[in-house]
Design a protein that fits this description.
By secondary structure, this protein is an alpha+beta fold. The protein has 13 helices and eleven strands. It folds into three domains: 2-110, Trigger factor ribosome-binding domain (Alpha-Beta Plaits, 2-Layer Sandwich), CATH 3.30.70.1050; 151-246, Chitinase A, domain 3 (Roll); 272-450, Orthogonal Bundle (Trigger factor, domain 2), CATH 1.10.3120. Helix 1 crosses helix 2 (51-81), helix 3 (134-146) crosses helix 5 (263-295) and helix 10 packs across helix 11. The longest helix has 34 residues, at 418-451.
Length: 477
Amino acid sequence: MKVTVENKKGLNKDVKVFVDKKTMNDYMDKKYEEIKGTVNLKGFRPGKVPKEVLKRQFGKAIFGEVLDKVLKETSTKALEENKIKPAGQPKLDLKTYGEDKDLEYVLSVTELPKVELKSIENIKFDEYTVKIDPKETEKRIKEIAKNQPNFKEAADNVTAKEGDLVVFDYNATVNEKSFKGGEGKNTQLTLGKDLFLKGFDKQLIGVKKGDEKNVEAVLPENFPEKELVNKKAKFKCSITSIKNPEEVKIDDQFAKNLGAKDLDDLKSLILKQINDEYKNSLDRLTKNQILKEIEKFKVNDIPENLLAEEVKILSQGMSEEDAKKSKSNFEEIAKKRIKVGLVLNEFGEQNQIKVTEQELQLEVQKQIQMMPGQEKMVMDFYKKNPNALASLRGTVYEEKILNAIKQKGKPSKKEITKDEAEKILKDSQNQQLDTNKEQIRDQEKKIETKKISPKKIAAKSKKAKTIKKKVKKVSKK
């Protein structure tokens, strides 16, 4: 194989590859030998079909397979040996090819630009740790206890009030007729929460154990029997129990009910939970600081094909006219994104950062935990959508790179209180909102400016002067 590289312009290169006839014939002979043992032709024993017969029968198909294989192998080798990293899919132009012929082709490649990484060591960013007051942990535990009330059986003559738990059986009818799903046993309602049917539990206030109570309520939009949706139903309720709320005692047993070893262990778990909540949000700010610093890195050339692809992504869903108006703004955003991507990718390659299958599956599990009750749906989604899994791998890859950059950069370590953390996060959010508003205003100004071209303005000005002169003449007359 002979390879020559021609620089065309900027990052564009033509890689000319020549594979002589003898090498191509060797590939063909290997393929014929490979299929000889699998072909069954009348009049020939298995594995004994002559090459010339195979050539007549399957020559074109075999050459197509061989050509495809040679192109893949030689093009990959040509790029690797010349240390060319393509920005996107190269274009291939076949010059000479055919059975018993030399193979000659040209790869038109847009190369990824060289990226300087020395500045990585000078990146400055804030690294926060949040000091949580023990009172915050106690407050969180009390909130959990408040949302998990205990109930104790009330005396027989006690009437139900808001906050009590009422246990009852019911039979329901619509227009005096029973319907599917219109019966219930040991139904429990906490009065005042309105979680069953709108206005239902208010009608149970004042009932006692053993009472019969008729309740009316409208069946909701999501009721399974569609013909009964929005119909008024009558519920005949038999009250079997009234239970009063009892303050939950926060002790070791309470902690064990929540999956902790004891109360001290629960406090440690809650402390970590609160810390993680703030840490994750503050880590995102740190990540954004690093990415902003990387945007300042110098990258001489941005590949035009990557720029066009990124602009296309940014303008998805827009009309052709609006996309044209926004093109220059999108190009600026695209250049920053591509630059950051190039720097991160180069850093990842130089530091041999990879995402293992175990790390990817761990991230999938995190996604599953965020959607309780829909575990199978999430798992099936990633199984059926390789692109989604690849995107998730990219997220994990970027996270690993940023963590590695943190190790090399210059962090400003800050220990802050919960209140200070909340202020930093709020200020950051407001700043982002202001930036978004400013970008929208700038875009609107650009659109307004483009609506009237300089030529049109000049023409309007000239027309106005002409009209003014005519008015003066008329007034003189």
